[in-house]
Amino acid sequence: MVGEPTxxxxxxxxxxxxxxxxxxxxxxxxxxxxxxxxxxIVDQHNFHTFLPLLYQVATAGLEPADVAYPIRTIFGKxxxxxxxxxxxxxxxxxxxxxxxxxxxxxxxxxxxxACGATAAFFGxxxxxxxxxxxxxxxxARGLRNHLLLTLEAADVKGTGGAAPLTFVVVGGGPTGxxxxxxxxxxxxxxxxxxxxxxxxxxTKVILLDVAPRLLNGFPRSASTYAERALSRKxxxxxxxxxxxxxxxxxxxxxSGEQIxxxxxxxxxxxxxxxxxxxxxxxAPGPAGRVSVASxxxxxxxxxxxxxxxxxxxxxxxxxxxxxxxxxxxxxxxxHCAAQILNAVEGRPTTPFVYRNKGIMATIGRRSAxxxxxxxxxxxxxxxxxxxxxxxxxxxxxxxxxxxxxINWTWRYFDWPSGPRLIMADAETAD
Length: 430
Prior knowledge:
Elements: E1 14-19, H1 23-32, E2 37-43, E3 47-49, H2 54-58, E4 68-70, H3 71-74, E5 81-85, E6 88-92, E7 97-100, E8 105-107, E9 110-113, E10 118-119, H4 127-130, E11 132-133, H5 137-157, E12 165-170, H6 174-193, E13 203-209, H7 220-233, E14 236-239, E15 243-246, E16 250-253, E17 258-260, E18 263-266, E19 270-271, E20 290-291, E21 304-306, E22 311-312, H8 326-344, E23 359-364, E24 367-371, E25 378-379, H9 380-394, H10 398-413
Parallel strand pairs: 1-2, 1-9, 2-5, 9-21, 11-18, 12-13, 12-18, 13-14, 20-22
Antiparallel strand pairs: 3-4, 6-7, 7-8, 10-19, 15-16, 16-17, 23-24, 24-25
Helix pairs in contact: 1-8
């Protein structure tokens, strides 16, 4: 609780257990590295994923290794940090232990829930089974394989009498807008560079959203620019459209219209329901997110903290809750680590205040919108350069930054022959 220190263990080093190696978890551990506590970070993957660029992996703009970095390497020089590869499945608050899926238990003095979120399907029949989310590296690899296999199958059929090739993206937020533009560019480059026998007039990318405009959290001028830019590129934008069912070969809208497609990219939002947040014993908040106090401690548990997408992080102003964005995860992770040190050293904790650093979204090659805390909306090439600079800054690993920078620089002048590879683990197309 704010103003009430947490008393740590007496002799042994204070054990801080961090569940999740995403943006929030990484920031917690970075700030605690080199301090007089011992930190164990647990994740079911041995790498950190840069989620904002997953859509580029999915559309063959980047390699999977370009957006992932080994957690052990990140903290290789931090002697008070240990990595544990595993999946947390439950918390025993009385015994202060976390259970892993293999039956092992890990003890803690302070526990940080930085478990992230998963795709939210909102109870739409067939969506979870037939739509393709884009929230993990495995999701991105699977979508890339599916897209390329679909194009190869269309090439075999040829253009003579072939059925229309339709790709549907559900969700008009940054991920949906970025993915729709990237899918269209992938189609263009495959036809032009790889000489696939596909008639461009038979292909279609449809972007659906129930909201009245794209990029709903952006200024209206940014939404207008994004809609015009995508329309000029050839994306069909359908606003005010609600999806009521997703089948293996079609999408059904609330109006009763059916869109024939075997590719539905689900970018309609995320939820913490189904993650470790559900099994932590913490009080649930909106969309399954863990309810936290103003200092980010979990309600009812003075030594448990929640940050990032899986927490209902307060804005620090009135009763607002922060959106599930990377800047929120980064800032809440840093603040949480500072509060743990405050508690360990007997100082009062302080409330979290979110500082809006701006929002950005790409619309395609050399085109983006960016709204910084002050000033007008930056659009077009300047917006794309601002977007590129920020993402390179936050990308983990010098090698990854260099590879992505070279890739984007090349792409600025001309679309290169990117990693359009169908991996061995891909399913066979019909």
